[in-house]
Fold this protein.
Amino acid sequence: MHNEQATCDHLAELLRQITTHLEEFQRFEHPDAVANIVSWKSVLSGHAPEKGIGASQVIAEMGEHVIPNGSQISKPGCTSYITTAATDIGSIATLAGIVASPQRIGVTAFNHLEGLALKWLAEMFGLPKGMQGVFSSGGSTANLIGLGAARQWAFKKIGIDAAADGVQRACRIYATEQSHHTVHRAVAVLGMGRRAMVHIAVDDDMRMSPEALRKQLQADEQLDTLPVAIVANAGSTNTGSIDPLQEIGEIAHEYNIWFHVDGAYGLPGTLDPNVNDLYRGLTLANSITVDAHKWLGAPVGIGATFVRDYNALHDTFTQGDADYIESTVVEEERVENSMDAMGFPYHDLGVELSAPTRGAIVWALIREIGVDGMRARICRHNEMARRVAEQAKQHPNLELALEPTLSICCFSYVHEKASDLNGLNKKIHRQLMKNGVNIPSTTMVGDKFVIRPCFLGARTDWHHADDLVNEVIDIGNKIMSKGI
Ligand SMILES: Cc1ncc(COP(=O)(O)O)c(C=O)c1O
């Protein structure tokens, strides 16, 4: 019976079945996946089965062995990475897209919403007028796309079409060591090589030093290298620092170098009036990235790149003509059917042809709570980081490593009798992971190992900030009282 015949017309019923398991998961009462690793790994193994078991049975197996052993990232107390679980409407819009528009192409409401959602993002974050965007799978790809445009532009200035003829000269890309390493990878993928990355010094707040940048650019004028881009952070992954965008942008313009701003995490910070001023220099950017799957609550798989002019992307990423595409496309005015044309050709502006519809998800997220709701979330999370910072400053056993800019706060436990504070904080973090309720990550600020919560999940609320601080103090005290 299940031979070849995959169920294709019982979606509602199957959704009802899976919903029970998902609801249970979202109570977050399951033990961590590692607690039962032997059991679920033994069930989820073996060779490809000759015979299928049918959709309902697959759902039952998912419910028993897969979903309960999912990720801690979904938990409201998880402040570890810069992604989180999708909000309900994010999950539902994703499913709607999968069902009703498996591709972003075609003259459909989904293709239209790609454009509308990009326009809403640009308006919401106050991007320079006229900036045009494209969705991709996340910050890694979004940076790759922005830097691809930068590469094309830089080589065009010396009469080379890099997309056609390749990278014909040694390049330099200026960033700080705080920039996300997906930037380095993007530079490598674009053929410029990781060694093209030049790290500019940061100040005590982990922000790029404009003086150091200027000095480096002056020194590099003697070299036979091609300056391709200056990459600034609008919310670094480590500490949430925002580089001095205005000063850096002015230097980029003075030297006629492409100015790329990585706002994968931090661009939504523009909505917080307390920090909005730090984004002033965005007006000078040639390309800007943001991830909907970080602070906006989208499911993982949605980033966006904005540029001044789509041609910059088209020149780099166009697929070129292909018979299998062109044969079905008719002139726009003669479109009689949604399949007569591709809709807006996003596939010529990035690295994917087949791609899911992402705009409908971002549209739904904003439509649900409005810009006002997004602003309230961003402000709340930034305020939570500041609250942790205040507690760290006031408590005798805590130390603030860096004043927070956005929703990341770096702090550590301290004790007069502790001889190895970094080791002690590592132990505290290990215990937090074991307890599995408040789950921050860690980083280094200078030579200090610090606890690093990043508040950005829609489910992560005020008390999670307090709970984390209290648990850190509690674990630290216990370790110290045992004389470790
Ligand atoms: C500032 C920044 N840029 C880029 C990335 C990479 O994004 P993704 O993981 O979506 O590829 C991240 C990820 O955390 C980030 O924080």
Q: What stands out?
A: The first strand starts at residue 78 and ends at 79. The chain has a mean pLDDT of 95.
